[in-house]
Design goal:
229 residues; two-stranded antiparallel ribbon; globular; 1-acyl-sn-glycerol-3-phosphate acyltransferase; transferase
Length: 229
């Protein structure tokens, strides 16, 4: 009952504040790139603040997340981590499925921020454009983030990694930093529970491995906290 009450209080505060911040970002984006980036980080801060104060959720990071340009893989169990990325990394560039860019307003702002579209049926030219965008972001000192499962996965489930990871891994030729997390452990249906959301940085995956080996290492690392409820 307490979790239900807390969640019902959290919903209007978080989503109402998010709507205001996204609208403000849309107004600022044409005039100030730095101001726009600052608002995006403020949204991430608002996400954490509402989780901590209204839901009783705290964040813990185990291991070191390297600063600067790097390629990260994250487990994906809740919307929390997608919004939280700017609190963990500096101006992260996320590989996102093409459908998200069709969302009114949000999709346009995602392009402005520098998110990279993944087209599941992409041809060679699209792959080259994706590689160019990724290397361009890293040249600016920005980290790359991929959620290799492609969508949110309930805590306790370990679906195979999508083929997109292998393609990007081969295209970029970079070491990979896999990160496990357990945000879904604090969610049952629409109710959210207090506790600690843990990010755990796994062993670095070197470039140049065979696809099967790279996927196996990545799958094991991002599911390190994925225990059945």
């Amino acid at each position: 009952m307490l979790a239900a009450v807390r969640t019902l209080v959290w919903m209007p505060f978080f989503y109402g504040g998010s709507a205001l911040l996204v609208s403000f970002a849309a107004l600022v984006a044409p005039f100030s790139r730095d101001g726009f980036v600052a608002i995006v980080r403020s949204w991430a801060g608002w996400n954490r603040y509402c989780a901590r104060v209204l839901l009783g959720q705290r964040v813990r990071v185990e291991g070191d997340l390297p600063a600067g340009p790097a390629f990260f893989l994250f487990k994906h169990e809740d919307q929390f981590e997608t919004i939280d990325m700017p609190m963990l990394l500096v101006r992260p560039v996320v590989f996102a499925k093409q459908e998200l860019f069709n969302i009114p307003l949000w999709g346009r702002l995602a392009h402005v921020y520098g998110l990279i579209s993944i087209e599941r049926t992409a041809g060679a030219s699209a792959l080259r454009a994706m590689r160019k965008a990724a290397l361009g972001a890293m040249a600016q000192g920005r980290p790359l983030v991929l959620f290799p499962e492609g969508t949110r996965v309930p805590h306790g489930e370990q679906p195979p990694i999508h083929s997109g990871f292998a393609g990007i891994y081969k295209l970029l030729g970079l070491p990979v930093y896999p990160v496990a997390l357990d945000s879904g452990r604090l969610k049952r249906g629409w109710r959210r529970y207090p506790g600690v959301i843990t990010y755990r940085v796994g062993p670095v995956i070197p470039p140049g491995l065979a696809r099967e080996e790279a996927e196996a290492l990545a799958h094991r690392a991002i599911n390190a906290l994925n225990r059945p409820l």
